[in-house]
Amino acid sequence: MNAVLGKLVATIQELSYYHSEADIGVYLSYCDFQSYVISNLACTKELNTWFTKKFEKGALRFVAKEDMPRGDSEKPRHFVVELKRINSVFAKSKKQYIEAQMEHANEEATLSKLRAQLASQHSYIHEDIHSLRRRNSELTEELKDLSLQVQECLSETVASLCSDLARLEGANILQGDHNLIVHRQECYISQQKRFINHLVNQLAAHRFLAIACQLERRTKISSAYSLLKATEMELQSYVLAVNSRLDQYHLIGEAASSMIEEGSIDDRDTFLHAVRDILSSYSGSQTMTPTYVSACALVEQISELEDELHCYQHELENVLPRERGRFIDEQCRMVQTLEQILSVPVTHMLPKFTPWPLAQALEELEMISYEVYASVNEVTMAREEKTKMLQQPSRNAQQERRVFADFFCHPGRLENQVRELTSRVRGIPE
After folding, report:
1. In 266-418, which ranges are E strands?
2. Domain HAUS augmin-like complex subunit 3 N-terminal, which positions (predicted)?
């Protein structure tokens, strides 16, 4: 109940703050108080339930009995004591119930006041809406009047400015269409000159870059060709070394196959000593004392050398072509990457040119510049001739001024003059 009363007091304060017009923008409706009404009804229901439980179903139900015996004095005395005890216990509860009923009545009065205030607020809101609509209609009418005034002022100002321009006799515009044509042609010729200069610069840059790319391509191809030549020479030297080694192995194999001796090597046989020395040098044995081996051991060593020879031949026939192809592919990829790197336009470095191609390019640029100079001279001469022809005094300057002024200020008069001239031309016999 206290919480409900606190919320009602807060709502009343908000309404008083709103009616004081301190801050316009807070709008309340009857639905805002629905929660307070529901909580109030729930509180009243709980109080009624509690008192019903205590007074109708508790110890006080003995008071309502009518079938008590009248002559028994012990029971009434017991009932009196019980009633006194109950009254002493529930006196405070009765007082709280009465206070709660009074608070409920106050709340009902407050709610009725709030409903009345809300009804008055709705009427105020409707009045404000009608006043705003009236103000909006008034402002739209004022805007229409202002737009009409602005259009009238603009028409009058434009007409006055055109008449002032017509009265300016010293202006270049009012001296006829010839001066206008001259100015227009000068502007057009200046634009043509700028465009021609731009084209010349673009053409020179294009030729310059084309020559640079061609020279770079030639140097790149020559460097790649020299690199391939060096690679081919290295491969040829490698093949020659392998072939020489194979020849040595064949000679050793033939020498070993021609040997028929068995047993230990004779000291007087210089050939076997040489074969033994070759085999020991191949095996990498570095001994200070000479080692004597038999012919069978020499044959075994020679057979091992033959096996190694077969392995080397197999590598020469199968492995080396693959390695050569892989090496050539790598060289081609390197050349392609170099081509891609060199094909990128360089902005901060200029290529090195040989004198002869550069001289040819400069000759072509000189020929192009001579042609451009001749075309510019022709355009300049034509402009001077037209300027001399148009600088002659106009015979109909006054009429041109009048036509110019009528075009801006009195277009109807100009239309009438055009109609008259058209009728005269049509009336002339062919």
Report:
1. none
2. 1-103
Residues 53 and 161: their CA atoms lie apart, in Å, by 100
Which amino acid makes up residue 169? E
Cβ 111 vs Cβ 37: under 8 Å: yes
Spatial distance between the Cα atoms of 164 and 410, rounded to a whole number of angstroms: 14
156 part of a folded domain: no
Supply the range of the domain harboring residue 32: 2-142
Residue ending a domain, among 142, 160, 189, is: 142
Distance CA(143)–CA(146), nearest Å, equals 5
Task: State the distance between the two ends of the chain, measured CA to CA, in whole angstroms.
Answer: 115
CB-based burial, 291-314: b 16+ in 10 Å, e otherwise: eeeebeebeebbeebbeebeebee
For 340-363, b/e burial (b = at least 16 CB within 10 A) is eeeeeeeeeeeeeeeeeeeeebee
Residue tagged 């006041």 (tokens):
113
**Per-block mean pLDDT, blocks of 10 residues, the chain (430 long):** 63 62 48 66 75 61 47 61 69 72 82 79 70 81 84 74 59 50 74 83 82 82 82 83 81 66 54 66 48 61 79 79 78 74 52 58 76 78 72 60 75 82 76
- Number of domains within the chain: 2
Residue found by looking up tokens 């902005």 in the block: 347
State both tokens at 378. Answer: 């022709």
| pTM summary value | 0.21
